[in-house]
Amino acid sequence: MKSLWNQKEAEQCENELDLRVYSSRLLGQDKTLVLHGGGNTSVKINEKNILGEDESILYVKGSGWDLEFIERPGFSPVRMEHLLKLAELKVLSDSQMVNELKTHMVQASAPTPSVEAILHAILPYKYVDHTHADAVVTITNSNDGLQRIKDIYGDKVVILPYCMPGFDLSRLCADEFRKQVTDKTLGMVLMNHGIFSFAGTAKESYERMISLVDMAEDYIKQQKAWNLLQVNHEVDEHVSKHLEIARLRKDISDRAEKPMIVHFNAGIKYLDYIHRENIGDISQQGPATPDHVIRTKRLPMLGRDVDNYIEDYKQYFKKHATGRKQAVAMLDPTPRVIIDHEFGIGAVGATAKDAAIVADIYDHTVDIILRATALSEYKALPASDIFDVEYWELEQAKLKKSGAGPVFSGEVAMVTGAASGIGLACVESLLARGAAVVGLDIDNKVESLFQRADYLGLTCDVSIQQHIVQALDKGIRRFGGLDMLVLNAGIFPKSRNISELSNEFWREVMQINLDANLMIMREAYPLLKLAPKGGRVVMMGSKNVPAPGPGAAAYSVSKAGITQLARIAALEWGADNIRINTLHPDAVFDTAIWTDEVLNARAESYGLTVDEYKRKNILKTEVSSHDVAELAAEMCGPLFSKTTGAQLPVDGGNDRVI
Length: 658
Ligand code: ZN
What we know:
Blueprint: H1 7-11, H2 16-29, E1 40-48, E2 54-61, E3 75-79, H3 80-87, H4 94-103, H5 117-122, E4 127-131, H6 134-140, H7 145-153, E5 157-160, H8 167-180, E6 187-190, E7 194-199, H9 202-222, H10 242-256, E8 261-265, H11 268-274, H12 279-282, H13 293-296, E9 301-302, H14 306-321, E10 337-340, E11 344-349, H15 352-375, H16 383-390, H17 393-400, E12 412-416, H18 421-432, E13 436-441, E14 455-459, H19 465-479, E15 484-487, H20 503-528, E16 535-540, H21 553-573, E17 578-585, H22 596-605, H23 610-614, H24 625-635, E18 647-650
Helix pairs in contact: 6-15, 10-19, 14-16, 18-24, 19-20, 20-21
The structure holds zinc ion.
């Protein structure tokens, strides 16, 4: 563990709250301390209210904020006086507690305060930091965890047994803290949950966290339980597994009743974990900290039997839900983590971002499980404790906030020719509708177009069969399946009359504009068949199909060829619930081929200004890449759900086409 504190940066902070923001972000940057919204921090500040009276205010992390990116408005200001009175109550329900926290803030628009607000208030220090540090949960989740914590820290920390977060934990802390605190106390360990540090300054509280976690890491290293890679398992990259993965994703999506993203990773660390003899035991204990359950579920699925997993989940639900004061409805029973000998470790989510969060959490869980096993034995909390958190109304609220999601949530699209022009615009339109997108292009700039969990850019020559198969394989490993395909890649060759048209020129145009699309369609077909909501294909045709021009024989014939290909595919694939439609764009000038020079020359040859030339259509309107892309995306959506084999112009109206 290294302190990231930078005195120069810290000196830029204007006040105590800014310092709180600064050191919270330092904690958030270290993924071994907190992951995706985990952990919380606070500072107690004396302020004058509008009446000029002095008030002590607890600024505590608001729900929905991530420590890594938190800003001033991410801290909810709650009156200390009221919090301390609440801490004296014998009982307080979750909803009562949230109500009290919300109604005793001094800023009406602030986010809902963390459910640990009362706990932060009780701790008599200006700055309080809380993380779920991997090293600490590794030790507290191992056999003899309590004794090990005592050995490591002595009287440096107060130790609390596991308790459900919220009011009960605050009560427990109020009692135990008073009993155990000494002038040597630097922090507090919560068994099977995490660690607190606290101090009079932001720097000291942060650096105490670092040094306390460092002690835990040193202990694990001393016990020779830190570096654990055993065997380097090779996966045969040449064997394409994408169809089997897509089938598994279909099973999960069908049972979840919505399309899901499934992200597989077969890195060395994961294969080593999966192939351990005791994997059936160590992977089936439970999460490292109860907070993770809402993302990962209690247990990963071993293998591919989704029905069996669901059956077990129902049993678990039935066992723990009966006899509760408040009735709870069962959540979607499908797995969020998959452990598969061939595919690697799978992370499942309603969106690519959710799946990436699951993958991150499980990545840390693997380290924790293996290190705790090396110490002695990995022991998670009993299922009943995990269930309490999984079905805790306050945790469920975190997930509900995300809502139903956009139209293509959980779906996967592939776009060819994605690096620029209409292809790039299609990527943007599909991402905007919630799809995860695989962009293919011969230009390697496609790889770095977007840095986000729901985009994968792959350099790919679509006229080479092997490139297509590899791209599908990578796309499926990343997102789990293929629901939509936008066939946009193509070349627009120089004008040439038939009398001067060489065989080579003709072949080249056909190979890229026609043959390549046949290959992709053939390879993608079995995957599109497994699309949970049915497969959809959009073919990028051209105005030249209904209204060809002289000098464009090769181009027009290739585009007419793919149009016919699409019509026949519509006939052949309808029974598989795959729709395919063709767009005929014209005069889309915001693409790479239309440089200012070319535009000026063309406009001049018609005796028009560039602007007049661009609007040379019946509606006198300009057609942009974005216009074409929006229509392509809509053709994959519910609006066109009853349409297949159709051809639609997007050209501002052309009298020859009409
Ligand atoms: Zn916590």
